[in-house]
Amino acid sequence: MIIPVYNAVDHLPECLHSIAGQSIGFERLEIVAVDDGSTDGSGELLDEWAERHPGRVRVVHQENSGAPGGPRNRAIDMAEGEFLFFADPDDYLGTEALERLVAAAERNDSDVVLGKIKGVGRKAPVTPFRANVDGGDIFTSKGVWSLTAHKLFRRSLVEEHGLRFAEGLRLAEEQVFVVPAYLLARSISVVSDYDCYYLVRRDDFPHLTREVPDPAPFYANVREVLDIVVAHVPAGGRRDKLLHRWLTLEILGRFDRRFADLPEDTRALHVKLAGELLRDFMPQALVAALPPLSRLRCLLISGELVEELTALTTLVPRPEPKPKPKPEPEAPQRAASAAEPAPRPRGGLGRYTPATVLRGVRRRLKRGR
């Protein structure tokens, strides 16, 4: 059990107790926790657990690295068990999770086992967990739709191929580990009929998935992952099924309402780097199969039309505030009021509409942009 820990003292006990109480037996487990420069007492709590459970809990302390990838890599180098499971200190496991995951791995000679993830106050992946899978692959498991590290990995696979997490990256750092693990695994199994891992939203705990990433390292990491995909999967429909995930989530997913709030130079860099990924990896047939609004976003990104793309991300009308109750008007006044046209909802930038965005696109493209 590998846990990167940074300032999680309020939630870490729940995580640790959920591991110690596993039905597989605590005597079959080893916890390797890396205290990543905590200042809230998390390190001291881990030391107390190590003192109470010698040989079961191993703790190492280091200066803060800024992201979980480095601590996880350090723990991999220390681990001795047959399997690795990565947990975060603010989450917890179902009591039978490890017993079921290990049983699936042993039954199917699987190098990777996905256990159903249950969201607590936040979203969790659904697609891979619609049915159990015994000895599948990246396609039959639909594992590409769950790329977080919260899974069981056979340590021999990790060591044989030198799999490690991206370091210093605060979003999607797991993908350079998980994706090649999927592609290189002898088989992949899915345990969907039991809530194995509880992914918890903590209002008092910083979740990296809510952050807007620094564009240069983020897109460089995505490029590295896509290079892995195209190196292992021949061009065609099967590869496109995988690429669709990065197109919709990692590329188009960066251009939501938060995009308009970024500084101008940051927005321009996002568009430039996302456009390069579109041109280098995404077949035209894959883009053409997207819904119309997504195709329009791809067109704007490819043309580096930052202003129009910014406008497009703000076009969803905001809810109108509920009117305050007014005194009941006289009958003539009510009739006159009813004759007045209702105000039209507007998007976040009042001067933009879908039509003005499209006109701007056409003008820019005619000028050779």
Question: Unreliable stretches, pLDDT < 50, 5 or more residues?
Answer: 331-352
User: Which sheet architecture does the biggest sheet show?
Assistant: 6 strands, mixed
Strand runs, count = 9
Give the overall pLDDT as a whole number.
Answer: 88
Summarize the amount of helix as a percent range: 40-55%
- The sequence of SSEs as H and E is EHEHEHEEHEEEHHEHHHHHHHH
* Strand content bin: 5-15%
What is the general shape? globular
Radius of gyration, CA atoms, in whole angstroms: 25 Å
N- and C-termini, Cα separation: 52 Å
Task: Tell me about this structure.
The chain is α/β, with parallel strands linked by helices. It is 42% helix and 14% strand. The chain is built from 14 helices and nine strands. The strands form two sheets. Strands 4, 5, 6, 7, 8 and 9 form a six-stranded mixed β-sheet that branches. The longest helix is centred in the middle third of the chain and has 18 residues, at 215-232.
Lay out the secondary structure.
Layout: E1 2-5, H1 12-20, E2 31-36, H2 42-52, E3 57-62, H3 69-78, E4 83-85, E5 92-93, H4 97-108, E6 112-120, E7 133-136, E8 152-154, H5 155-160, H6 175-184, E9 188-200, H7 215-232, H8 237-251, H9 264-281, H10 284-288, H11 292-302, H12 306-312, H13 331-339, H14 354-366
Helix pairs in contact: 6-7, 7-8, 7-9, 12-14
